[in-house]
């Protein structure tokens, strides 16, 4: 906080010098900015000129610190330096100003009142004392904030029991209430036609429960809305509710949640404008939904688009529509669709964008604005938000009939409709919804905007919640983006973002605009090369604003990415895309703008607020991108790269070509359950596998086995269970594996329990019984520095980064082996160097040396990120091969090397705490409270693998960490560093020696 306070001092001095003096109006902005900066750290907001209604009249306080639910946490009032501060405080309090948590200040003195009495007074120039006052202010919890927190905590603790009681009531109703069961079955049939055949009775029951639990919340925020009386879907579900949930049953069950509902009503009373209500409701919804149903929150991606981004997209579309189609968005016959509307943010801002154009707005709202949503609660909130906003603008209530309750990705009915066919594919939950879907599908829709669900792959497979497959859209992706691309991991191409882009591109027809805020990896990830190729064929103009924020990077790159505009609620980088389809134009122009590095999220949102696409375009802020032959838009590699020998490629791997150095390559093992199948202790690993096998076998016999999810499931293991594949513990499958650089662990090598073993049975045999040498390298689109490491045993996929492996030999099942370096490569080397004595093992060593050459890594850094390495011919082949052999001996045989002779100092300690901390400045390593290793040579830290030195990998991997898997945490959390201390010290000595030796050899290569 001291940094923020000193920034306040500097701003105050600037204002005094520029604006002059003692006047409150001139100087208070500095204090307001101070509060805003501290508030942001506490996830709070400062609102200036805050209105407060009192019995004695309306007050306007200089500032209020509020949260996203608009609960006030504190107040601030500025006075002139020339005023008598104490007299002014007395005067304000007499007028009814709050004294529960308020700062009065005059730039000289700050006074803090809490609970109607002064608790702190300090000269503002005393930074330490001033910091204490501010800390007291922000740490204080007002009664209404505390009451809401307590009510919320009680709600979240009571919610599971209430939900379970509702589930039991529904189960009884299905069995004992024929009238309810009949209505529920009809409702289910309609849901299956509208949303998809994968909808079950459980889903319908879930919708009903959500309706019951949130009804009072909606009514509290929008007490005057006609929504629950008139909306066709709310009425239908409400009618279904009446068949089983009424009277005393309803009262007794919901009374447990009444404290929360009361707190919501009280908090909602302070929301006045539609925007305040929307913000309030979104926050409650996100909080409620994630706690109530994390399974669906994970699946649907419950994250909302910042308003600044929404307005930027809308204004951008308005300009592009004028530029290309000579129309404003509000003009007739320019229909607009948000295909994944969530809580209606885009449509709400669209209506506000048209404020003041009453007649056109009435027409547009009734006929030409459309939105789809598939989550019942989101649908409800979207209706309320949109209709409330329309009322605020027009002073008229009108149901928004452009909103459909439908799964957009399944709704491909527009194709039959536009061809003149009859669209019976999708029914509806009600006749009204059916008519809405039909009406939308009959319209030509030239503008599609929104924020597709962020969740490409669920975080937790044990939710059994994998995102659905969409047959027709997925086939279109296969025929376009995948067909034209080179991606090996094609699963990524079925990302939900990609599906919505594909759907929207098809929905546009001959001309139009698609504008999404989405994943920035489309811009530069190699896996999306097919996507990039297709969009340049289907669209004539593309505008991209790269907002960065990719949290899946690390080190300096992560810092440069800055904050995520979604307040770090998602981990992917973010970009705003405008795709324009205009048949009057030829080719495709790609305009690209990227925000500065290191910007925090709030500055990125400010940038969006202060800029708009038209201004940026007309002032030349965009760069023009020319894709290369590999469909790369950014980071296009060095041209002479293609003259070198490819180290590997999939055509050689499949036998369609011989033109690569290695025939076979493989990823490291991707287990999907590292905590279950790796361990430093062979005995502990054996215990885990026995337990895992036991649960798996019991699940085979009973798919509803109560402890089924005590182990980690994935799609492959589920498939094996469905096929009734029996498993037993096999001791010979306990092998050593290299888990991270220079870190060996015991590993249970089993294709059924390892997720993906790729080619490793062809590299080391079924139970890893064959010897082999392997060069491992960073895989495609890595974010860290390029890495290479030779090994002799099975590696984890994360040994390096997305580790790819190039073995010396390939083994057949009978144990016979062949060399993995191709005859084509051998001939290339012999011909170039005019030396028939070159052998494949020499090439293996030569390649390893080249991959360590700093000049090679630097020159071809971009190329190495895009594809497998290519190998140049350097002068003096055998010298390079010798360097490579020496490096390989160091790295493969690191456990046999004489440890580096650092100095060990032991000092007894009563409470010995594990440290495992590097101090590079003082050339030492702290092992624990008792032991230090001194005289660590500076060279040792220079041997980097990714963002860590080899020594730091050892320190990191041997730290005590809480397991993430709940069963491992409960039953198998046995690792204690003390058991391995001497082993780790010995390993650090060896890795230190390896590091010094490696750096020395690399310097020799460099010179």
Count of discrete alpha- or pi-helical segments spanning 4 or more residues = 40
User: Which overall shape is indicated by the principal axes computed on the Cα atoms?
Assistant: globular
Number of domains: 5
Radius of gyration: 32 Å
Give the amount of beta strand, in percent: 15-25%
Compact summary:
This protein is an alpha+beta fold.
Write structural notes for this entry.
By secondary structure, the protein is α+β, with helices and mostly antiparallel strands. The chain has five domains: 2-140, tt1808, chain A, CATH 3.90.1570; 148-302 and 335-445, no CATH class; 461-625, no CATH class; 650-819, no CATH class; 896-1006, no CATH class. Helix content is 46%, strand content 16%. The chain is built from 40 helices and 33 strands. It has a nine-stranded mixed β-sheet, with helices on both faces. A six-stranded mixed β-sheet has the order 1-2-3-4-5-6. It has a four-stranded antiparallel β-sheet with strand order 17-24-21-22. Strand 19 (734-740) and strand 20 form a beta hairpin. Helix 12 (274-292) crosses helix 13 and helix 15 packs parallel to helix 17. It is globular. The two termini are 49 Å apart.
SSE arrangement:
Blueprint: H1 2-18, H2 24-41, E1 45-54, E2 57-66, E3 72-78, H3 85-94, E4 101-105, E5 109-114, E6 117-123, H4 127-139, H5 143-176, H6 178-194, H7 201-221, H8 227-230, H9 232-242, H10 247-254, H11 258-268, H12 274-292, H13 294-300, H14 307-325, E7 336-338, H15 345-353, H16 358-367, E8 369-373, H17 376-394, E9 403-405, H18 413-418, H19 431-442, E10 447-450, H20 471-482, H21 496-508, E11 512-519, H22 521-524, H23 529-538, E12 541-548, H24 555-561, E13 574-581, E14 589-594, H25 601-610, H26 613-618, E15 623-625, E16 645-646, H27 650-653, E17 666-667, H28 674-677, E18 678-679, H29 682-701, H30 715-722, E19 734-740, E20 743-748, H31 760-764, E21 774-777, E22 788-791, E23 794-795, E24 804-807, E25 809-811, E26 817-819, H32 823-833, H33 840-850, H34 854-859, H35 861-866, E27 870-871, H36 877-892, E28 903-906, E29 914-919, E30 924-928, E31 931-934, H37 938-942, E32 944-945, E33 948-949, H38 950-957, H39 966-971, H40 981-1006
Parallel strand pairs: 3-4, 7-8, 7-10, 8-9, 10-11, 12-14, 19-23
Antiparallel strand pairs: 1-2, 2-3, 4-5, 5-6, 11-13, 12-13, 14-15, 16-27, 17-24, 18-20, 19-20, 21-22, 21-24, 25-26, 28-31, 29-30, 30-31, 32-33
Helix pairs in contact: 1-2, 5-6, 5-11, 7-9, 7-11, 7-17, 12-13, 12-17, 14-15, 14-25, 15-17, 20-21, 33-36, 36-40, 38-40
